[in-house]
Specification:
Radius of gyration: 18 Å
Strand content: 15-25%
Shape: globular
InterPro entries: NAD(P)-bd_dom_sf, Polyketide_Oxido-like
GO molecular function: biliverdin reductase [NAD(P)H] activity; riboflavin reductase (NADPH) activity
Family: Belongs to the avfA family.
Number of strands: 12
Length: 276
């Protein structure tokens, strides 16, 4: 595998957003790893849903079989596929809950199979980074700490600015309170790790509005706003503020992450709202 581009690690790549980001990276000759409970499922998803040729997968993608809740599995995916003594440059987490179902709860009427999957998944990634550091693998090939990109959800903006249409409040804060709470707990774990600075170099939180399936509309249709994830740091770029919208496509979100965060850069420390 020969490439001078930054290396990437993907978690939750069979999901629409992370899968689209991974596909965009592979088309542009980026070397990547991915953790999947069923590697064949991920390969089939990439070839059928995103038209990635099998030779490209064989050359650029290393799929590790495993579970994001098992540290030993996660560690393998965090090692650079081009430099085994280093970490990947960017970690992209599309971890999310599955098995949505109604449950007997007035506060959280819709449940998911694991109501803490995002929080514990990211916690496991950070623990795996710490474990690798103890083994002498603590930086990327460029000598820095990796960037962690996590797909979250709008609502509860730390800046106090509103990032959800009022009509969506009952959906996010009541109907989907269980997965919403999990995403926000995940964000807090990431902020804590960033403040310590011993596992990750920086982070980007992606907050798409309601996610839609279907063909991409193109990056020109995606509106992006942002606020700082960690408050109270002086002398930084002035916040653009969040955007508000009703929906955004999963493929557009994934391709935006690749084009803006991976390729262009400059989003470190920001929480980015995306919508059409």
């Amino acid at each position: 595998m020969t490439t001078t581009k930054p290396t990437l690690a993907f978690f939750g790549a069979t999901g629409g957003c992370a899968g689209a980001a991974l596909s965009a990276a592979l088309r542009d000759n980026y070397a990547a790893t991915a953790l999947a409970r069923t590697p064949d499922k991920l390969r089939t998803f990439l070839t059928t849903a995103h038209s990635i040729p099998a030779p490209t997968l064989d050359t650029l993608l290393t799929i590790h079989a495993g579970n994001v809740l098992k540290e030993v599995d996660v560690k393998r995916a965090l090692i650079s596929p081009t430099s085994p003594s280093h970490l990947v440059d960017t970690i992209i987490s599309g971890i999310g809950g599955g098995g949505a179902h109604f449950q007997a709860s007035l506060r959280k009427p819709v449940g998911i199979d694991n109501p803490h999957i995002c929080e514990t998944g990211v916690t496991t990634i950070l623990a795996a980074l710490a474990s690798l550091a103890n083994e002498g693998i603590s930086t990327t090939a460029s000598g820095s700490k990796p960037l962690l990109v996590a797909i979250s959800t709008p609502g509860g903006c730390q800046s106090g600015q509103r990032d959800l249409p009022i009509l969506y409040w009952p959906v996010f804060y009541w109907l989907l309170a269980e997965p919403y709470t999990d995403k926000k707990a995940m964000e807090r774990v990431i902020y804590s790790a960033a403040k310590k600075g011993n596992s990750i170099g920086d982070f980007v939180i992606i907050r798409p509005t309601i996610l839609m399936d279907g063909p991409a509309r193109g990056l020109g249709k995606v509106r992006a706003g942002w606020v700082w994830g960690i408050r109270g740091v002086e002398g930084r770029e002035k916040e653009l503020g969040p955007t508000m919208g009703w929906a955004v496509g999963k493929t557009d979100v994934g391709e935006w992450i690749f084009a803006e965060v991976v390729t262009k850069g400059g989003w470190g420390g920001k929480c980015v709202t995306l919508n059409w």
